[in-house]
Structure formats: C-alpha cells, structure tokens
Amino acid sequence: MALFSGGHGRTGTPWEGRYKACLLDSADYVLRGYRYIELYPVRARLTDDPAAYSWSSYSANLGDADTRH
C-alpha cells in the first residue's frame, strides 16, 4: 500500500477518512438510516429494484431472502 499511497500523494490506508459514524438516538432516525442505506443502489442507478441488488440487505430486512453469499 505504501507504493500506491506514495505514488498518489496519500498517506495512511486507502479507506482513511471515508468512514463516518453517528448516534441514531430515535426510532425515526434509525428508520431513516435504513431507508437511506437500502435505497442507495436505486439512487446511484445501480438497480431499479433494491430487492434485486445482490449486495443489499433490503430483502433480508423484509424477511424474505436467502442471505447466504
């Protein structure tokens, strides 16, 4: 990774600074968070149906999916 980082003017890991965390202190915020995460593939135009997106937990959270990958 040092070769990649040095060649691209970076330090640390490739994932440094990308992860953010915040406290979801109410059921409303938790549901909004789930909706945001589960519907992101649709917003990003990766799929038209969130249940059809292989890397989504949308179907599992509905209780109607085989989650073995």
TrEMBL record:
The lineage of its organism: Bacteria, Pseudomonadati, Pseudomonadota, Gammaproteobacteria, Lysobacterales. This is Transposase. GO terms for biological process: DNA transposition. It comes from Xanthomonas arboricola pv. pruni. GO terms for molecular function: DNA binding; transposase activity. Transmembrane segments: none annotated. InterPro entries: Transposase_17_sf.
